[in-house]
Design goal:
alpha+beta; Clathrin_app_Ig-like_sf; transport
């Protein structure tokens, strides 16, 4: 049989292929020749054939038929055969295939071989693809090589030990004696792998972490790091003028683990961290990498305040770097530290605001979130000016988050009511189509409570919608205000700015234009028709025209609009004596608070008020197309996380998934047919704004509880009692996330025993920001007519780190004040 072609010739031949089909034909032809050679037990060219197979495997073609040939090469006495055999094993074998167990004995023999390079091949293979069974069998040999004086073998043995610990954590203590002298080695390769091994042990075992803190590992690491910083030029380890940056980064990461929540260890490393931060060259990317690790270490340990300011100043310098990646990590790091070192981050406010103009969208988003986190009472005017300019020019995907952040920051830090109203109106004019659903009722409430600003506000809104109905939330607020304060608009009583001369007919022209505009949504038309009806008690000369408009819409194809018009016609015809009282001006509205004043928490630069607000219900509520099993059993209340639906009287269905969720909450027996509690909701006639506080103040003393705390997700419950029905307990949940990644598609479901009735309102969001930088709030209403002890089973679903998560929990520790 002729000798097979060499690997180099095969590569050259494959590269000459002009099409994919031609390449496949060459590969298939060569694979057939290799199979024939394997069948003939040709030992002469086995090494060459396996090498060619590995190249084909790298191109994506199947090469599994060469697995046993790799084992034969490993068993060979030639070093060249062993080298290709072990390389083939690492590429073609893994622990899912039983074939790999056949090489355990060969690896054990080679670990005890007299040649260090053969021992190195065996260590590399075990550290790459060794299964837990292999690691248990060969851990003793690895531990012996870890104690050897040969630097070449020690560094490979240390990395192999890392793999053994990951596969079999209980073998960790076997390697503890060998770690005592590892950091005394002068070889940088051994030092690097030793630090990796120590880091793995500290991360996986709290006992190991405590042991290394006790044996003074920190001073040894500090000494090594100091020698690296102070050492002169070493061509063997120099990278862009810095001595072994890879080892420096590894040591800084290990110091971060050792110093976390430990005062003594943190104090021992403060000086060296300051030296690294001040002596590292920043002109090259290598130096920036070391400085970034230094900053992370300073922020994670119990460092001195001056050192933390130094770290934040380093991040501030990063913001001026031309490299986008460096600017991004700087913004991300500042966002994590802004809560603990707010004043130090404030010094870099102008640089952060400049990042809003960056062309990179990820840098823009981080800069926007950080800008909102920096807003306070002292800088709110300047920051809002910059953020409003950003809102004008930013891409559509930023407008919703930016508008929400401006609303909430203005609510918390507004220097005056006029400034607050002007700011929100500017947002509605600029990005009205992108604001959240609660923006309209919140602004209406703000305007209602600002009695002295009514004439100014209605005049500004009237001018804002002249001829432009594209921003629907703005048109809704303007329609409501014109309906409430149309008499102030016509009388020209505005003292804040020059009044405009408007007639009653001109006001009605605007509202009628909203009704007939193709851009007006059904909800907007409802606002406009209600405003026209209210003007029948504010205007004196146009009542007949108003009657005509209302009667026209009595035959509208929009059912919601038709119903309103019919009811308003009835007011004119049958109950005209009641019309002035029904349509009188709305009183000042009070916002319900949760356990005291409104609490606003940071949410990645946004702020979320943890309060339950009254909202106008959307017109034409439709039941969900797919009923949730849980809700069917509890009376049909829909808890879809975006749109709350009206409670129904649908009987329960004893579904399997539902019963799993409810567990032993005494839900067996006859199905529940009672509807969900009909909490009194405001009539749309008054645009959904209640004139009475929804909750009383006696519940302010009810303590909050932690209902769930697992895998970084924490759910807190706070309680209120309804003013209209003492049997109703209102629970506000707050979900926070302490992990390093956001939790998305978060859905909270709850169930109670059949003696209770439950209703869930819409959550504030479906994304829980990472690092406890924000919360999701959602309101639960529980009707407890028999005043029994409250119990609840909750179900949580969300996506985290690319995986769908689901968990069940039972809450039994409700405070007595919440249900008695």
């Amino acid at each position: 049989m002729p000798a097979p072609i060499r690997l180099r010739e095969l590569i050259r031949t494959i590269r000459t292929a002009r099409t994919q089909a031609e390449e496949r034909e060459m590969i298939q032809k060569e694979c057939a020749a290799i199979r024939s050679s394997f069948r003939e037990e040709d030992n002469t060219y086995r090494c060459r054939n396996v090498a060619k197979l590995l190249y084909m495997h790298m191109l994506g073609y199947p090469a599994h038929f060469g697995q046993l040939e790799c084992l034969k090469l490993i068993a060979s006495q030639k070093f060249t055969d062993k080298r290709i055999g072990y390389l083939g094993a690492m590429l073609l074998l893994d622990e899912r295939q039983d074939v790999h167990l056949l090489m355990t004995n060969c690896i054990k023999n080679d670990l005890n071989h007299s040649t260090q390079y053969v021992q190195g091949l065996a260590l590399c293979t075990l550290g790459c693809m060794g299964s837990s069974e292999m690691c248990r069998d060969l851990a003793g040999e690895v531990e012996k090589l870890l104690k050897t004086s040969n630097s070449y073998l020690r560094k490979k043995a240390a990395l192999c030990a890392v793999h053994v610990i990951r596969k079999v954590p209980e073998l960790m203590e076997m390697f503890l004696p060998a770690t005592k002298n590892l950091l005394n080695e002068k070889n940088h390769g051994v030092l690097h792998t030793s630090v990796v091994l120590l880091t793995e042990m500290c991360e996986r075992s709290p006992d190991m972490l405590a042991h290394f803190r006790k044996v003074s590992l920190v001073p040894q690491l500090v000494r090594i790091l100091k020698n690296l910083i102070m050492s002169g030029y070493s061509p063997e380890h120099d990278v862009s003028g810095i001595s072994d940056p890879f080892l420096q980064v590894r040591i800084l990461r290990l110091l971060r683990i050792l110093g976390r929540n430990d005062d003594d260890s943190s104090e021992a490393m403060n000086d060296i961290l300051a030296q690294v931060a001040t002596n590292t060259e920043t002109s090259k990317n290598v130096g920036n990498a070391i400085l970034y690790e230094t900053v992370l270490t300073i922020m994670d340990i119990k460092s001195e305040s001056g050192l933390r300011v130094l770290a934040i100043n380093i991040l501030g310098r990063f913001l001026l770097n031309n490299d986008k990646n460096i600017r991004y990590v700087a913004l991300t790091s500042l966002l994590k530290t802004v809560q603990t070192d707010h004043n130090a981050v404030q010094r870099h406010r102008s640089t952060i605001v400049d990042c809003l103009k960056d062309l990179d969208v990820s840098i823009k988003r981080r800069a926007m979130e950080l800008s909102f986190a920096l807003v306070n009472g002292n800088n709110v005017r300047g920051m809002m000016k910059e953020l409003l300019y950003f809102l004008d020019s930013c891409e559509p995907e930023f407008k919703a988050d930016c508008a929400s952040g401006i609303f909430l920051a203005a609510e918390k830090y507004a220097p005056s009511k006029r400034w607050h109203i002007d700011t929100i109106m500017r947002v509605l004019t600029t990005a009205g189509s992108y604001v959240r659903d609660d923006a309209v009722p919140n602004l209406i409430q703000l305007i209602t409570n600002s009695v002295e600003m009514h004439a100014y506000t209605v005049q500004r809104l009237y001018k804002a919608i002249l001829g432009d109905y594209s921003q629907q939330p703005l048109v809704q607020v303007a329609s409501w205000c014109i309906g409430e304060y149309g008499d102030l608009l016509v009388s020209g009583q505005c003292e804040e700015e020059e009044p405009i001369q408007v007639t009653e007919d001109e006001v009605l022209d605007i509202l009628e234009s909203v009704l007939i505009s193709n851009m007006s949504a059904s909800v907007t038309r409802g606002y406009a028709l209600t405003a026209i009806m209210k003007l029948s008690t504010r205007f004196t000369c146009t009542v007949n025209r108003i009657k005509k408009v209302v009667s026209i819409y009595g035959s509208s194809i929009d059912v919601e609009l038709q119903q309103r018009a019919v009811e308003y016609n009835a007011l004119f015809k049958k109950y005209d004596h009641m019309r002035p009282a029904l349509l009188e001006r709305m009183p000042v509205m009070e916002k319900a608070t949760t356990n005291g004043p409104t609490e606003i928490v940071q949410t990645n630069g946004e702020t979320e008020p943890a309060v339950l607000e009254t909202k106008p219900p959307p017109s034409g509520l439709q039941p969900a197309s797919q009923a949730n099993d849980l809700l069917d059993l509890l009376g049909g209340s829909d808890i879809t996380p975006v749109i709350p639906t009206a409670p129904t009287s649908k009987p329960a269905s004893a579904g399997g998934e539902l019963l799993d969720l409810l567990g032993d909450l005494n839900l067996t027996g006859s199905p529940v047919s009672a509807p969900a509690p009909q909490i009194a909701q405001p009539s749309f006639l008054l645009d959904g704004l209640s004139s009475q506080p929804l909750f009383n103040d006696i519940a302010a003393g009810i303590p909050s509880i932690t209902a769930y705390n697992k895998n970084g997700l924490k759910i807190d419950f706070t309680f209120e009692r309804s003013n209209t029905n003492p049997s109703v307990t209102v629970i506000t949940i707050q979900a926070s996330n302490s992990t390093e990644l956001d939790m998305t598609d978060f859905v909270f479901q709850a169930a109670v025993p059949k003696t209770f009735q439950l209703q869930l309102l819409s959550p504030s969001s479906s994304v829980i920001p990472a690092f406890n930088s924000g919360t999701i709030t959602q309101v639960i209403k529980v009707l407890n007519p028999q005043k029994q002890q409250l119990r609840m089973r909750i179900k949580l679903t969300y996506n985290h780190k690319g995986s769908a998560m689901q968990d069940l929990a039972e809450v039994n520790n409700f405070p007595p004040q919440s249900w008695q």
